[in-house]
Amino acid sequence: MESHKEKRSRPVIKIFMIIATTLIGLIAIGLLILTVSGYNIFEVAKKYGQNVPVLSTLFEEDQTEMMQTMENRLIELEAEVNDREARIEQLQNQVESKDNELNKASQEKTRLENRVDELVLMKEENKRAFSDIIKTYEEMAAKKAAPILSNMNEEEAVRILAEVKPEVLADILAKMEPTKAASFTSLVTASVENTSTTDDDEKAAE
């Protein structure tokens, strides 16, 4: 009995296998034709699958997960952009601060240079004025110059006497009181020696 039933079921299985193989082949051929024709079978499946309750649920879950992933990625990118913008702003502030410091330093340098130029100009003017004073005393009669220098501030008088010509200095000192003349002679000699030493030091430094 069992052998007879087994013999009868074999043709049914063969028929079922033939039908299944044929359907699979037809489906494969159909997918191939659709692909060659330019259809995106996955998009089509998604489109029609959304109308099927079970498949639509799968598509919705997949879409929700994808949207959540995209939102998370977007948040991360926004945070990264904000961090970079903050860093750029910080660097810009540092650059502006450095620029301000450089501008202040440049202005201070210019101010100091102008001050130096003013002092040099004043020195040159004072030097010319002092030269005029020396020339005046050299042209003045020794009899007249002696009392003026004797009554002048000692430091200023010595400064003038140290610059006049030697013969003028001798004439002026000769017209002074001996005590005053001796004092001025000593002070002028010390001043000239000090000036000579200073000049030698400056030349050595150069």
UniProtKB/TrEMBL annotation:
<dbReference type="InterPro" id="IPR006668">
    <property type="entry name" value="Mg_transptr_MgtE_intracell_dom"/>
</dbReference>
<keyword id="KW-0472">Membrane</keyword>
<dbReference type="Pfam" id="PF03448">
    <property type="entry name" value="MgtE_N"/>
</dbReference>
<keyword id="KW-1133">Transmembrane helix</keyword>
<feature type="coiled-coil region">
    <location>
        <begin position="60"/>
        <end position="129"/>
    </location>
</feature>
<dbReference type="InterPro" id="IPR038076">
    <property type="entry name" value="MgtE_N_sf"/>
</dbReference>
<keyword id="KW-0812">Transmembrane</keyword>
<feature type="transmembrane region" description="Helical">
    <location>
        <begin position="12"/>
        <end position="34"/>
    </location>
</feature>
<keyword id="KW-0175">Coiled coil</keyword>
<feature type="compositionally biased region" description="Polar residues">
    <location>
        <begin position="185"/>
        <end position="197"/>
    </location>
</feature>
<feature type="region of interest" description="Disordered">
    <location>
        <begin position="185"/>
        <end position="206"/>
    </location>
</feature>
<feature type="domain" description="Magnesium transporter MgtE intracellular">
    <location>
        <begin position="138"/>
        <end position="186"/>
    </location>
</feature>
<protein>
    <recommendedName>
        <fullName>Magnesium transporter MgtE intracellular domain-containing protein</fullName>
    </recommendedName>
</protein>
